[in-house]
Please model this.
Amino acid sequence: GPLGTGVCDEKTLPVKWSATENVKWRVALPERGNSTPIVWNDRVFLTQPVGKERTLMCFNRSDGKLLWKQGITTQLADDPTHGTNPYCSGSPVTDGERVVVFFGSDGLHCYDFAGRKLWSRDLGVQRHIWGYASSPVILGDLCFLNFGPGARSFLIAVDKKTGKTVWQRDEETGYGKPPAADVRGGKGGNATYVGSWTTPVFMRVEGRDQLLMSWPRRLAAYDPKTGKELWTCAGLNPLVYSSPIYSGDTVVTMGGFGGMSLAVRAGGSGDITASRRLWHHPRTKQRIGSGVIHDGRIYIHNDPGVAECFNLKTGNLVWEERLRSDGKSVQNWSSVMLAGGNCYTITQGGDCFVFKASPKFELVAVNSLGERSNSSIVPSNGDLFIRTHAALWCIGAKK
Model:
C-alpha cells in the first residue's frame, strides 16, 4: 500500500476465487515478469519487458484495456540477470500525477498519466549477476531509489518534478571483494553473493520522517530531506531481498539466503546495535518477500513455502506451517498483504493462500490461478490485482 507496510484497511476483499470464479478480467502479458502492479483510481500501472524494450504499461481498471505503453529500447549488449529475475522487476510508483519507473542500467524515467515522458535520468551502470529489483518510492517532492546491487550501490533522492539529484549516499557493500567469512551466512563463499535488492520504506520516528533501508549486514535510517545517516543497527547477512517492516517504534528486517533477522527500537543516533536492538535470529529460512505486523505478531511466508508467525517483542516463534497445494511450486516470493484480519500471498506455482492473522494458524482458502508468479497481491477498492508470468488479473465479485 501507500505506506509500504503491507497492511490494507479494506474489510471486504475476496477470500475465494479461481481461474474462472470471481474474475472480473484477465489480460495476457507479452512476457514473464516479476514486478507488482500499482493502482491509482481508474488506472493500473505495470512495468514489463518486451524483447529489448523496457516498458511501463497503463491499463483501464474497469476492463483491463491497455490504454498506453511507453518506455525505452535498451542499447546494452550485455546486461546480466538471474534466470528467475526478468528485466523491469521493480514496480512503478505514483503520486497521482506522475509515474516513476526504474530500469537498472537503462535509467530512471518519469511519465504523466497520459504516457508523456516528463524526464529521464541515466544513473550509470547497475551490474550484478542477478540483476536489479528495487522500486522507486515517493515522499513529498522527492523520489527515492536504492540503486544497486553491484560494484556501485547508492541511495539517491531526486526531485520528482525534474529528476534532478537532491542528494546521494554511496553504500560500501563489499560486492566483488575477496570472500568474507560471513558470506551466505557461513564460512567462505563467493563474494559476488552480496547485495540489497530491497525497496526503502518510511516511518515517523520521534516526530520526524525517517527513511529505512536494509543493506548487507545492517539496517540504516536516513533523513529523507538531506540523506544524513541517523542510525544503524547490525545483524543482517550479506544477501537482503525484503524491505523493513514496522509497528509503533519497532522495526523488523530480514535477510535472504542463510538469512538473519532482527528487531530494533527505532531512534537514537549512530550505532544502536547494543543499546536498542531487541532480538536477533542468526540463521533463518530464506525470505524474498516482506512480512507484515499485526497485533504484536509478525507474519511471513518464506521462500521454501513455510508461513511463520513470531512474537514482535521477543522474536519467539508462535507457529509455523508449510503451505501445500497442487501447484507446480510451493516456493513463495510474494510479500504478505494483510486485510480484514487475513494474510494474502501467492506462490511461484500460482496458488493464492489466505490465512488468518492470529496466534493459531487457520487456513481460510487456497485459490489457484494455474499460472506461475513471482509478484505480490494488490488490493484496491474491493478488488485484488495479481500479476502472473502470463497475465494481469483483476479478482472481485462481478456486479
Summary: The radius of gyration is 20 Å.
